[in-house]
C-alpha cells in the first residue's frame, strides 16, 4: 500500500489522493510507502492502526472547522476514534450520486456534440421541423401570386389610430414636427408604413418634418425613408424642403434628456443657424416645445420607455405620438391607457399603418401584403393548434397503459 | 468617380437579392453562405457606427474644437478628451485600472438617469393612474365605460400583486400558519402564473407579427423581381 505525505500539514494520505484530506492543500505526485511502513494493509480498519500517534489519520467525525490551519487544535478537530469504525479503501457512492454524475457527463457530452441527435427520428428533428413549418408558411403566403387576389376589407380604424389622426390634423402649420426614428433596419417593413403615412399627412399640411435618431444606424434609416418616399406611387413629398435629417443624438440613454432640454447644444447643425433660406422654421427651435408634435418610432419597448420617462421628467407640452412594433405594444399600452395619458397617440404594427393610410385616403400599399399578413397569422394559429393537439396525443399515448 | 444611378440601382438589387437568398438558406440548416451574410451585416453595422461616431461626435464635438477652436473651447474639450483617453486604457489589462473611474462615472450617470426616469416617469404615474381608474369609475355615474375603468384598475392591481408573488420564493411562515398561508401562496402563484403566461403569449404574438411582416416584405421583393 503506497501513500503520500502532505507537504503542508505532514499527514499521510492515500497515494491516489490529489488533495490532502486534512488540510485540503494540493499533494505532490510523488509517493512514498509510508503507510506500508506503519503496517496498514487492506482493508483499512482503525484496529489495524499500529500506534496512537497515527490515530488522527482517520477521524471518524469531521469538525466544520477542520482543515483551517491554526484555527483549532488538532485534538479538537479529531475528538475521538471509534474502534469499530471501518475505513473502506473505496468511496461509498450512492445510486443518486451515480445518477447525478451520469447526468453531468451526458450534459457535458451534449455540449460538445454536433447539432442534431442522430438517435432522434427524422420527423421529430429540429431541422426538419424548421424546414417543414417554413415551407408551409412560404408556400401559403406565395399562393396569392398564383391565384386571383380575393377582395378583403381593409381594417377598420381603431380608436388609437383615429385619435392620432385627429392630433395630426389639428396641428399648427407654422411649427415643424419632430420625428425620432429609433428602430433597427430589420423592422423597416413594419414601421416604415406608419411613418410614411404620417409623413404624407404632415407634408399635405405643409408642415416641415425634422428627423433625428438616437441609434447610430438611424440617420441612414431616415435617408432610406426619404428615398422610399420619393419612389412612392403617390407624391407624398411635394416639396423636398419639407423634410430635414438632423442626424444622430449621441449618448444613448444619457443623450435623450440632454436632447429634450437643449437640442441645439447636443446636435449642432448648420440648419439651426445657416438654414434660414431653406428651413426658416428651424431658426426658432430651442427646445422640443418649439415643435408642433413629437413622434417616436421604435421597435424596442425599453427605448420607448426611456423616451416616455425622460419626457415625463422634462415635459415638452406638445402631443407625443408613438409608432411601435407589435412586439412592443404590451409594454406601451399602459402609458396610453393611463389617466392622464402619458402618450397621446399610438400606431402599433402594420395594421395601424394600413388603417391610417386608408383613413387618410393615401394608401398606395399593395393589398397583397395585407392578405399575406392575415394568411400568415391564420397559418400560425393553425400550426400551433395542430402541434398542440399532436403533442397532447403523443403525451397521452405514452402515459396510457 | 460618380457611378450612374441605374448602375447603383442594379448593384443594389443584385446584392439585396443575394443577401435575402442567403438568409433564407438557413431554412436548410446553418451553412457558409448564411454565415457570410451574417458577417456582412455585422461588419456593415460596425462600420456605420464608427462612421457616425466620427462624423457626429468625435470630430465636430471633440477633436475639431480641441485642435482649431478658441482657448475656451480647447479648455472645455480638455476634460472629455482626457477621460476618453483614460477609457481607452481599458483595452490593456495592465492599465485598465486607469479607466475604472471613467467607467464608474458613466455607469453612475446612466443609473441616475434611469432610476430617476423610472420613478418619475413610470412608477409614480402608473400607480396613480391605476388608483384613478378605480376612483373615477366607481365615483362616476354607473355606465359601461366607468364599469370597465374599475375592472381595468382592479385587473392591473391583481396582475401586479400576483405576478410579484409568483417570483417570491424566500418567504417563511410559522408552522401554525402553514396551511392557511400555503393556500394563499398557492393561489397567488397560480393566478400570477396565468397573468405571466398571457403576457408572454401576447409578446410572442407581437414578435411573430413583426417577423412575419419582415418575411412578407422580402418575399414580395423576390417575387417582384421575378414578375
List the helices and strands and how they pair.
The complex is a heterodimer of chains A (401) and B (227).
Chain A: E1 3-5, E2 12-14, H1 34-37, H2 74-77, H3 95-112, H4 126-142, H5 159-169, E3 177-182, H6 188-204, E4 209-213, H7 218-231, E5 243-248, H8 255-261, H9 263-266, H10 270-274, E6 293-298, H11 301-313, E7 320-324, H12 329-337, E8 345-348, H13 349-360, H14 367-399
Helix pairs in contact in A: 4-14, 6-13, 11-12
Chain B: H1 5-24, H2 32-68, H3 71-88, H4 96-139, H5 144-166, H6 178-226
Could you please describe the fold and organization of this structure?
The complex is a heterodimer of chains A (401) and B (227). Chain A is an alpha/beta fold and 401 residues long. In chain A, 42% of the residues lie in helices and 9% in strands. In chain A, the strands form two sheets. Chain A has a six-stranded parallel β-sheet with strand order 5-4-3-6-7-8, with helices on both faces. In chain A, strands 1-2 form a two-stranded antiparallel sheet. In chain A, helix 4 (126-142) packs antiparallel against helix 14. Chain B has a domain at 1-68. Chain B is 84% helix and 0% strand. Chain B is built from six helices and no strands. In chain B, helix 1 crosses helix 2 (32-68), helix 4 (96-139) packs antiparallel against helix 5 (144-166) and helix 5 crosses helix 6. Chain B is extended. The interface between A and B is large, with 59 and 51 residues.
Amino acid at each position: 500500500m503506497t501513500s503520500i505525505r502532505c507537504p503542508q500539514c505532514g499527514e499521510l494520505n492515500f497515494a491516489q489522493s490529489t488533495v490532502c484530506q486534512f488540510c485540503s492543500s494540493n499533494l505532490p505526485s510523488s509517493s512514498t510507502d509510508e503507510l506500508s511502513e506503519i503496517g496498514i494493509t487492506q482493508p483499512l480498519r482503525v484496529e489495524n492502526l499500529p500506534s496512537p500517534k497515527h490515530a488522527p489519520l482517520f477521524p471518524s467525525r469531521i469538525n466544520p472547522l477542520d482543515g483551517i490551519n491554526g484555527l483549532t487544535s488538532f485534538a479538537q478537530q479529531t475528538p475521538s476514534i471509534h474502534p469499530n469504525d471501518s475505513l473502506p479503501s473505496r468511496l461509498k457512492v450512492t445510486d443518486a450520486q451515480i445518477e447525478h454524475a451520469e447526468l453531468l457527463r451526458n450534459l457535458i457530452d451534449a455540449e460538445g456534440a454536433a447539432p442534431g441527435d442522430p438517435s432522434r427520428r427524422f420527423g421529430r428533428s429540429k431541422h426538419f421541423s424548421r424546414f417543414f413549418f417554413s415551407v408551409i408558411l412560404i408556400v401559403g403566403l406565395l399562393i396569392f401570386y398564383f391565384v386571383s387576389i380575393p377582395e378583403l376589407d381593409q381594417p377598420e380604424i381603431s380608436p388609437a389610430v383615429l385619435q392620432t389622426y385627429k392630433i395630426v390634423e389639428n396641428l399648427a402649420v407654422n411649427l415643424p414636427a419632430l420625428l425620432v426614428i429609433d428602430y433597427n433596419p430589420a423592422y423597416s417593413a413594419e414601421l416604415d408604413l406608419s411613418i410614411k403615412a404620417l409623413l404624407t399627412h404632415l407634408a399635405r399640411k405643409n408642415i416641415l418634418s425634422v428627423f433625428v435618431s438616437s441609434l447610430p444606424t438611424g440617420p441612414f434609416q431616415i435617408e432610406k425613408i426619404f428615398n422610399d418616399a420619393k419612389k412612392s406611387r403617390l407624391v407624398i413629398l411635394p416639396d423636398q424642403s419639407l423634410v430635414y435629417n438632423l442626424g444622430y443624438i449621441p449618448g444613448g440613454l444619457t443623450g435623450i434628456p440632454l436632447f429634450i432640454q437643449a437640442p441645439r447644444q447636443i446636435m449642432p447643425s448648420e440648419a439651426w443657424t445657416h438654414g434660414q433660406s431653406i428651413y426658416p422654421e428651424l431658426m426658432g427651435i430651442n427646445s422640443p416645445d418649439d415643435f408642433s408634435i413629437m413622434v417616436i418610432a421604435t421597435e424596442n419597448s425599453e427605448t420607448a420607455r426611456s423616451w416616455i420617462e425622460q419626457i415625463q421628467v422634462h415635459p415638452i407640452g406638445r402631443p407625443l405620438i408613438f409608432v411601435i412594433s407589435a412586439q412592443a405594444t404590451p409594454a406601451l399600452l399602459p402609458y396610453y391607457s393611463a389617466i392622464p395619458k402619458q402618450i397621446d397617440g399610438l400606431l402599433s404594427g402594420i395594421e395601424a399603418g394600413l388603417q391610417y393610410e386608408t383613413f387618410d385616403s393615401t394608401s398606395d400599399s399593395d393589398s397583397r401584403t395585407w392578405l399575406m399578413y392575415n394568411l400568415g397569422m391564420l397559418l400560425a394559429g393553425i400550426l400551433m393548434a395542430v402541434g398542440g393537439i399532436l403533442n397532447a396525443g403523443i403525451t397521452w399515448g405514452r402515459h396510457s397503459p | 468617380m460618380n457611378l450612374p444611378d441605374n448602375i447603383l440601382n442594379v448593384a443594389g438589387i443584385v446584392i439585396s437579392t443575394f443577401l435575402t437568398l442567403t438568409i433564407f438558406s438557413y431554412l436548410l440548416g446553418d451553412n457558409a453562405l448564411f454565415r457570410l451574410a451574417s458577417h456582412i451585416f455585422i461588419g456593415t453595422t460596425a462600420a456605420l457606427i464608427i462612421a457616425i461616431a466620427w462624423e457626429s461626435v468625435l470630430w465636430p464635438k471633440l477633436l475639431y474644437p480641441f485642435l482649431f477652436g478658441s482657448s475656451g473651447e480647447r479648455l472645455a474639450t480638455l476634460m472629455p478628451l482626457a477621460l476618453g483617453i483614460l477609457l481607452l486604457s481599458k483595452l490593456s489589462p495592465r492599465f485598465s485600472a486607469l479607466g475604472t473611474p471613467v467607467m464608474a462615472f458613466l455607469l453612475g450617470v446612466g443609473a441616475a438617469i434611469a432610476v430617476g426616469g423610472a420613478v418619475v416617469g413610470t412608477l409614480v404615474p402608473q400607480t396613480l393612474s391605476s388608483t384613478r381608474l378605480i376612483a373615477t369609475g366607481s365615483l362616476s355615474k354607473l355606465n359601461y365605460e366607468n364599469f370597465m375603468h374599475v375592472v381595468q384598475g382592479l385587473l392591473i392591481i391583481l396582475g401586479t400583486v400576483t405576478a410579484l408573488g409568483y417570483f417570491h420564493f424566500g418567504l417563511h411562515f410559522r408552522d401554525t400558519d402553514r396551511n392557511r398561508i400555503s393556500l394563499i401562496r398557492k393561489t397567488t402563484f397560480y393566478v400570477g402564473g396565468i397573468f405571466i403566461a398571457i403576457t408572454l403569449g401576447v409578446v410572442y404574438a407581437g414578435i411573430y407579427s413583426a417577423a412575419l411582416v419582415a418575411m412578407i416584405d422580402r418575399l414580395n421583393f423576390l417575387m417582384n423581381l421575378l414578375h
